[in-house]
Amino acid sequence: MKKISRINLFLLTSILICSLIAPSLSYALDDKTQGEIYGKEYGSFLGLQKGEEDKLNNKGYRPYYSRPSLKDLLSDENANKIYRLKEQSTTYQNSFYSGFQIAFIEYYKLAYDSTNKSSQKGTNSTKSDYGKSFGELMGTIYGYKDYYEGKSNSWLRSLPSNSAIINEYELSKESSSYTIAFLKDYKDSFKTAYEDGYRKAKLETKEKAGEVGQEDGESLGSILGSIYGKKDYYSRYSSDWRRHLPSDYQLKSQYQLLKDIDMYSQAFVEGFKSAFEENYNESYRLVNVSFNNVIVENGFNDGKQVGLKRGEAFAQMDYSSGLSNNWSRNYVDDTQLINEFSLYRENEGYTEGFVAGFREGSREGYVKLYQSLNLNDSFTKIETKLIPISGGEIASADKILNLNIGKGTFYNDVLASIDRKSDNGYIFNDKLIKASKVYNVKVSGESKDFNNEGLFQLSFEYYGPEKGGIYKYVNGEWLYLPSDISDDRITTFIKPNTIMTQGGTYCVLIDKMAYKFNDIRGHWAKDEIKTYARRNYISGYGGKSFKPDQYITRGEFMSLLSKIYKWDLSENISMGKKFKDHAELKNMEKLAYYSRNKGYINGYSDNTFRVNVPISYRETEVIMGKILGSDNFKWANVADKMMYKKDVRSKYFDGKNNNITRAETVYMLYLLNEWKN
């Protein structure tokens, strides 16, 4: 869930980078220069915060109204904790406020525009401010840094390369015109600011006393502690100031104190560490408080969007099931919401806002869609359309179901029709929840010749969970079809022969018991495995694994065949002569003797069945030939399909005595039987 804008995070990161470079210079700055630099830092942060708040609260664009006065800053707890503003000279305070005003207006606009989803990305105004501001900031820092490192005045030497600037400010995500203009503004501002910073540093002197060292260390520790406190909060880390505190040696080395007298450097380190801890903790707390309202509102907006979709899904299911308009019927308690959307990982305010938004959105989405569905009942239930040989599409009268026929499927014009049916006469079980009306889809034409490889696209409007799927009514039961959910629609593809003349009956159902195998993602047979799992033909192992590349045993193979080909195991099955390993058959006893009696699968020459032994391609070929009643079945044809459609080479090509995998078995049976559906 998005909690803070990219600009906000980017600004904080930039401030942090600058602060890591500049500390060694800060004790050499005069009050005016130091006040202006720190004023710009605080102004940029507060401007960003106020800009976001005003936009989110629909208060309009008002940077001057939202900008605090100097009097306000002098009483600002945060400004005094971090920058000790009250304790500074009048010159420092006035310079601080001067820099603060400039940065506040600048970053207020950036935040306000970035929060506005319809803002004009990359406009000249935003571009100019963005490139110029960061060019000035980095130019000043490098100017001071180069002087105190004993380097000559050369802004070109310190200017980052184009690629470095593009990477640092994520310009690759912007348009080319925006990037070019940004680079120009950055370089122009960098040159001027660098030379000005180098000149000022040259005119200034360093104090080297214990008192000054302590003050300088506290000043820098305050700033860095504050920045890291903010950074950790935004990164959702726990509050721990020790995480970022440098060692004594790192401090002395980083801030060029190794050459300074011991009195100054030691006092600097002590002052830095003390102020760092204090300001880290305070900054973490203050940011938490100041942004809590925004976080709550973000949570509310996110929750409402989710609730709207969920409410629409509940309305669709209730209406399809003939239930009354009652959104509270599908109430979800707080604990369930927190677990489902992992809200226990979120800020408490965000969680509270999310739950409240979900409630409002769920109610609103449910009521609106239910009323819309009820209104659609007045429409004509049958829709008919002539589809030319160039292809076309037809939608149901209520616009819920859509059928798309591609060009080249038929060699003559055809008549397509969608008829919304009554639910009466169709069998539904407790496992499946209706999520749409029932529709009959039919295509007819003068010619019976057509391209059966030209798949039809069938899609429903859908707002439900991933457990939903498109089902076809076949021989008194609802059969799952491979379905994809995207952009508020659920889609499947069907062969033309399955709806020619007789038509096909379809409905969206939600399988309450459906679950995902955790080891088939990205597997070449994942669609076929998922389909057979949803049809209850196959099951997995513990931990929701299917083990697709594991060899299938004779027993597993028999079990799969019995479900697909509807073996009647309730009849009296004669065992005859028992297999020597009868005791190993256990719950597969009926399957073994049924298959032997039917002549599908015989035992071995030693009168063993070997239920747990993997089955080979050669054995599979023989068995399927008997089941299909044809000598024409060759596993080589399946292997060729795998190569052509899945780009997978079967081990069959290395030898027919190799063993077949669970995935290959499912794929083979899917190919052999799907044409029926």
Short overview:
The chain has 677 residues and is α+β, with helices and mostly antiparallel strands. It folds into six domains: 1-119, no CATH class; 121-205, no CATH class; 210-290, no CATH class; 295-376, no CATH class; 382-512, Chondroitinase Ac, Chain A, domain 3; 533-676, no CATH class. It is built from 24 helices and twelve strands.
Distance between the termini: 41 Å
Number of domains: 6
Low-confidence segments: 1-28, 116-128, 205-209
Q: How does the overall form come out from the CA principal axes? A: elongated
The number of E-state strands comes to 12
Structural class: alpha+beta
Tally of DSSP helical segments: 24
Describe the largest sheet: 7 strands, antiparallel
- Mean pLDDT rating: 80
Residue share in helices? 40-55%
Please, could you describe this protein's structure?
- The protein has 677 residues and is α+β, with helices and mostly antiparallel strands.
- It has 6 domains: 1-119, no CATH class; 121-205, no CATH class; 210-290, no CATH class; 295-376, no CATH class; 382-512, Chondroitinase Ac, Chain A, domain 3, CATH 2.60.220.30; 533-676, no CATH class.
- It has 24 helices and 12 strands.
- The chain has helices spanning 6-21, 23-26, 31-56, 63-66, 70-74, 77-83, 90-115, 124-148, 155-158, 162-168, 176-203, 210-234, 248-254, 262-290, 292-320, 334-340, 348-376, 526-534, 554-564, 582-585, 589-597, 617-628, 635-646, 662-673, and strands at residues 382-387, 392-395, 401-405, 414-421, 432-434, 438-444, 456-461, 468-474, 477-481, 484-486, 489-494, 504-511.
- The strands form 2 sheets. Strands 1, 4, 5, 6, 8, 9 and 12 form a 7-stranded antiparallel β-sheet that branches.
- A hairpin with a 2-residue loop joins β10 (484-486) and β11.
